[in-house]
Amino acid sequence: MSSAAHAPGEYSVTDPERALKYAIQHVAGDRAEIIEGVITPISLSWAHENAVDLVREQIGPRMRVLGLRAGSGNLDLPGSENWFIPDLAVVPAALAAKTEGALLPDQTLLVVEVTSPSNGDTDRTVRRRRYGQYGAPVYLLVDRQQRECTVFAEPSRLGYESVDGPHPFGAAVRLPAPFDLDLDTAGF
Length: 188
What we know:
single chain; alpha+beta; tt1808, chain A; 6-stranded mixed β-sheet; disordered N terminus
């Protein structure tokens, strides 16, 4: 142990990414994310939560058959200044049961984001690109401002190779394997 005292301003962080992600989990208080290095508090409306719940209800029977769980647990994007809290992520039940910390996007089977007036552009661009880069197999974007849904699949280092949509609210939206079901979007 060093006997030298540290003067104010001499504190150094050897791993800024780790320090930032630690702070968001332990210091920020309410739930917050880090989006491209910016700490962003989460504040959801009832209309937003309604759309999330409608997706959860529709995929629920298929999730039970496949042994999956859905929630809004933390997703870490290592090597970046990103720490996301998706509106809904679907993961294997065994993984959900044993994971106390964050999961990685490539450990999910589906990530769902529902836009809000304050974060629509982030969901449409940053999250779409980052979820694809980090291997989330399927990204469902429920865009409440544009009143449409888009399914992104086949992740790549640039985002997603496959785009199905946008589909206007009211149209059936097909979720690919392993879900293989049509979402009713009329209530979004």
